Please model this.
Amino acid sequence: MLTFLNRIFVGPFYARNAGTFLVLILLAFGFLSGREHKALITAAIGSPFLLSLVFVLWGLYLLKTISFVWQELTAIEHLFLQTFWLVPVPARGLLWLAIQSALLAPVIAYAGWMVQIATLYQKWDSLGAICGYVAVLTLVGAWFNDYRLRHPNPDTIRLPSLRIKLPYELFFPTYWLRHEPISLVLTKAFSGLLLAGVCRLYPTDDYDQRLLLIGLLMAILGHSQVSGQVKAFEQRYLLILPNLPFNWWQRFGRYALTYGLIWTPELLILLRNCPVEVSIYYVVALWLTGWGWLLVMHSLNYWQNILPDRWLSGAFVSFIVGLLAIMFGLPIGAWLIFGWITAWGYWYRCFTLSGSAGNS
Model:
């Protein structure tokens, strides 16, 4: 039974968020040495404020796992799981605890490292707080999951709503905000904080514009799962879309507007935190470059059925290649032009070939 539940909840959860986990790992362990990371943990276990910030991040991650489990429990293809509540309560509780522990594996692993350092410095209060908080996270997650299983259609209070006719470009952003808010918040928070942090590094030392390009590359990869979410949304709710009489540039333009809306907060963050040493035109070009490369990822994912592990491998290879290109001084103009031409050309080629195949 546990193996079966792992294939429904644990495996798909990590596969769907593979891009986000990759970027977090590269940020945490690729740019910080072991000594620097240990220093951060030491500061956290010695400061209640910093430790509380860590706990807040872990709580947000818990909400993401709960949101995913609730979504899977209500999916049409998983309605048979409603019979799971017939399993005796003790056995069902243990199964939910095992599932929630697997979903919280990154948090538990990091907490284990913090416990090791807390033991080394004899910070027994921090050690107890970390262990207790992780246990509470696991128990709360298991309880919420079981509650949703027992209440698949909970009573809700209906408030008066304003009906607005949405254009197509707002379909997915609205769905993302209403039905996957944790994914939206984590994606935009990671990207925004990363770009703001990179901008604020400039006054502390002598950096060139390659630092901003590296931050942009990581922010783009932080959105690597969005193209898959857009595709899954359309395959579930907009099955008629491929049959509508739109030509290639109309479809491409609509997706460009959708991703432009998704990418707009990054423009505001870059303009707000623009370093004095960097031209405002360079910052705008940086944002346009990110917009184009988001469309590249969308085009690749839209026209191909790429397995999650291959998508993860591709994201990792793209990061390495992009980092080398930045280090060798590839200018922002080349990134901007190549990204938009690649997105436009690949979309046009695949649309033309699919149209020819359909006519034949």
Observations:
- The longest helix spans residues 332-359.
- Confidence is low (pLDDT under 50) at residues 155-162.
- DSSP finds 15 helices and no strands in the chain.
- Residues 8 and 72 are 8 Å apart (CA to CA).
